[in-house]
Amino acid sequence: MSTSDYTPKAKAKGKAYWHWNTTKTKLDFPAVIVFCCFFFVFGFLCSSLRSQRGRQLLNSVEYELMGHGKTGDDSISVIPFQVISWRPRAFYFPKFATLEQCQHIINLAKPYLAPSKLALRKGESEGPQDVRTSMGTFLSVSDDPTGVLDAIEEKIAKATKLPRAHYEHFNVLRYELGQKYDSHLDAFPVEQYGPQKSQRV
């Protein structure tokens, strides 16, 4: 800008530019961090609200029921779960059983707890004692007149899509501090254990 061009208007424009440029330089690193945090929190809240809205819409959907057989249900079942891993396959079912149901099972099993046993191979009369040091017992649905075990077993059947007739009894285990069960396979090879009534799924 030449001296001849230095009019009051140009002077005012120059001051405005200088003021904006000075303000711009004041946005130092802490200010940038604050802005970033603000937009992050804002985006997170918006995402959470959209997710909750989606779940509400899903839960409010009305389904038309199909005709069912003797072993079917007359209602829709919704059991929330999370896929933890496909290989190996692992799923997480949050709040699958209530705290009251869990405490009921603990109270039901407590009088029957005994040292956990090992399946013996052919020729063995007693397994090594340091492999499994927990306490445990087996409970069947018929052992619980309140119907808690029956309700949980029915829910397991719906979650796994496996008929209840394929199930073992509930194996309730208690591990005190320091107790353990060494890594093992839940299967019984015939050549090692001899003929078995069944194999686990």
TrEMBL record:
Keywords: Iron, Membrane, Metal-binding, Transmembrane, Transmembrane helix. GO terms for cellular component: endoplasmic reticulum membrane. The chain crosses the membrane at residues 29-49. InterPro entries: P4HA-like. GO terms for molecular function: metal ion binding; procollagen-proline 4-dioxygenase activity. Gene3D superfamilies: q2cbj1_9rhob like domain (2.60.120.620). It is found in: Endoplasmic reticulum membrane. Signal peptide: none annotated. The keyword Iron applies. It comes from the Eukaryota. This is Prolyl 4-hydroxylase alpha subunit domain-containing protein. It comes from Gossypium harknessii.
